[in-house]
Amino acid sequence: MILSSATGAEDTALLVDTVRAAVGRADPADGRTDRVYRDGALDRELWSVLGREIGIGALAVPENLGGLGTSFATVAAVLETLGAELTRVPVLGGVVAAAALTRCTEHPLAGDLLEGIASGARIVATVVPGDECDAHSTESAFRAVEGGSGVTLTGRADFVLDGTVADTLLIHAVDRYGALGLYAVDRVHLTVEPMEATDATRDLARVHAENAPATLLTDRPEPGRVRDRALVALACDSLGVARACLDAAVAYAKERVQFGRLIGEFQAVKHMLAEVAVAVELADSAVAHAVWAVEEGTDDELAEAAAIAAIACGDAAGLATATNVQVHGGIGFTWEHTAHLYYRRALSSSVLWGTADEHAQRLYRLATGRADRDGGTPSPEPVREPAPALFATEH
After folding, report:
1. H helices of the chain, where?
2. Both ends of the chain: CA-CA distance in Å?
3. How does residue 390 score in pLDDT terms, banded at 50, 70 and 90?
4. Does domain 126-221 sit in CATH 3.40.50.2300?
């Protein structure tokens, strides 16, 4: 792979240009909508180039395990670039899987899986745990049972990223003693159904395990950290979507003439684009802080930064994609234009591993829990008012 001798923080810009050029050749913007609905959520030709030839999967894998061991800042830059191009490759899922596997490298299978991710020869998906799943919790959708023939898993999960194309799935499950572990399961032992999701550029699946043979990778997993790394990686993707839509809307506003004037000269359009620009800058700052937290922060700092980045980038992507459609006017609503693909990507990202409201609630719990530990007085639990009816009926 061509990145084997030239990867590092100083080469990030060159790496991003390399990735963007490869995407431009294999999946150009012209005709992308047709290819998405024709070929599905995995672009195998592009993945062959990015995964096997360029070696993009090796970025998040430690060097001693066949990867490049680059900084997460480099990984974040690549994820942002892939998000901006709406690429249909399992890089986001690979970053999440690598985060889980690097916590159990003492197991031979974990090392094999990491080498497969690094070389692009293996796709590994992760059932990302929810907020309720921690190292001391019995709250998990999967149960592990140990018998004479080994360990088997039973359970189900929805919205599993790369579920239908993965060779192996990583699943957190609890055993009969209530202990949480991280297990690897080959996809052939699972029932995997593709989901008809809003986002056609992303592979999402329902996964059902019924006494599926599994391998325990570690009985000391860190599901919270895996989830937080997943949220930061997803935020990078959303930032790329938001920035790409802002750039597209600004460029179109500079060339589209209406009523004898460029639409970018109209005050309403200027205000719309300025609002998006502010949201993108806030999201960029949130991602920068989250990247620092991944590399140097404590678990609490990472949890807080991940929630903030999820909220900021989700909001920025939602606003930018909707504004991009509006600025493009009639053409932006057509099936042939890519604007709706970006909008759909933003919608799926906003709920994939938690909604903005759930992330905000988590921030509240983190803040009040920290105040309690430090001897402060936590704020009272917020009271949610019932949502008002859309229409009122007089009797």
Report:
1. 12-26, 32-39, 44-47, 72-84, 91-101, 108-119, 223-253, 267-296, 299-328, 339-349, 356-373
2. 72
3. very low
4. no
Q: pLDDT tens across 223-281, in order?
A: 999 999 999 999 999 999 999 999 999 999 888 877 878 777 788 989 999 999 999 99
Which amino acid is it at 201? T
Which CATH number applies to 224-371? 1.20.140.10
Backbone angles phi, psi at 126, to 5 degrees: -130, 130
336 to each of 29, 34, 36, 219, 292, how far by Cα in Å?
11, 7, 11, 49, 39
pLDDT in tens, 310-340: 999 999 999 999 999 999 888 878 878 889 9
Same topology for domains 9-122 and 126-221, yes or no? no
270, 332 Cβ separation under 8 angstroms: no
Q: Residue 107, Cβ neighbours under 10 Å: how many?
A: 16
Phi, psi of 154 (to 5 degrees): -135, 135
Q: Are strands 124-126 and 168-174 parallel, antiparallel or unpaired?
A: parallel
Domain ranges of the chain: 9-122, 126-221, 224-371
**Stated pTM of the model:** 0.88
- Percent of the residues in the chain that have a pLDDT greater than 90, as a whole number: 61
| CATH architecture type of domain 9-122 | Orthogonal Bundle (1.10)
